[in-house]
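Hello support,

Our group uses your service weekly, and this is the first time we've seen a run hang past the timeout. The protein is Purine-cytosine permease-like protein. I'm not sure whether the cause is the sequence or the server load. Input pasted verbatim:
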Amino acid sequence: MSDPHGIRPPTTGVAADEVFRVEAHGMEQIPDADRHGGPRELFWVWFGANLTFTFVINGALVVGLGLGFWAAVTIFTVGNLAFFLVGAAAIAGARAGAPTLVVARAAFGRWGNYPVAVINWLVSIGYIILNTVVGVLALAVLGGLAGLGTGSPTLVAGLVLMIVCTAGVAVLGHATVEVMQRWLAIGLVVCTAVLGALVLPQADLSSGGTDAPRLWAWSLGLVIAVSGGPLSYIAICADFSRYLPRTSPGRGITAATGLGAMVPATALGIIGIAAATRVEVGASADPVAAVAGLLPVWFQVPFLLVVVGGCVTNTIMTLYSSGLNLQVLGVPLDRARTVLVQVVLVTAGSSVALFVVDFTEALLAFLSVMVVVFAPWAGVFLADLGLRRAHYDVEGLYARSGGAYRYTRGFHRAGLAALVTGVVLAASAVDSVLWTGPLAGLLGADLSLLGGPAAALTYYLLVRSRRASAPTAHESAPTTTENE
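Update from on-call engineer: The timeout came from a worker crash unrelated to the input. Re-ran successfully.
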């Protein structure tokens, strides 16, 4: 019986994390005796999760800004280099043995961490719904090819199938997620390579690049690439490295995570860019059908299976982490039950996305809101990790009162001030479907990503200046609250 916050008594041995058995641990620290594997395992976890059709859509959206093929490829590739920052953040998981949003208490305080934890959970649910919808659309096209029709009954059946496949693995937990990601990735990569070989030669290399202001298009393209990929993972990255031995090399963790995520994301984005020079993938109500129309009949079924498989791998990963997120927020359920609770919400949200709202408009609004919060959050988290050199007082991370990270009644003023600074800058510099900030209007570009570096610099300056003075009992600098 777990306690109300998902904390179980320490266990020993890898049996706590066995394939096809419900994982014993929740959000608590993973004891050294239960740690196993090496950084290479992270490569397949992230590779499988990023073989998802949403990157094809993101690539198509970049072309929709008016960029030509090569310009879109350049901006999408540059944006995906940020996956190596995700890899650097994942080092915290191995060192602390804790999920990302537990480690983040060091930067923001126990209670100061809550607002972004809530937003991250909502973002995670949004991404689960997004991938579920794309998978259902692919299953509907398959149903049409099989003579079952593409109407509401087929969509409902596809939704049920997607939920069962993803929730089943997420409930079992870390070891099963890791193995399924590897198996599915190996099966998907061959078909993805064939997809690229069929779509890329059809790219119109002379399309676009004439109507949109160049600075505006390049800046917004970068926002789409970063927010639709690396930034969406920054608050869950340590969830999959926390089982690694604490002595695992940081460079290995960074490289395995960064490469594992960047390679498939970039490849699929380029396929989406190529497809969008021929058909309106980003503006289509059914992007799956749009890309399928470019393919020969013999490959349409394998293509649709790739879409479904990629959506499954990504949803499994996100659903698992969002369950840990709920525990961090204090939901009195063990990890497996948090997954089941979310299934209800995802089913309802996916139904709305399938039958009520415009798919592409909802995606663009979603990405524009996310960058305003998570670019600054990532800046503070990474700055804090660097200042501490990834050393954390784990007892302090889990302390309900007192401890190294109590700060001022549970709020770290430096972390929250830096976060607010970054959010204000990002909100004033964003050019989204929801609003255009004054700086974006003045400069004719979306510079919302600058909220990340601004927050990181603000945090660094505040913490370093506080270190130079005498820290109070309630709010000490990160470099004075570390315990090996």
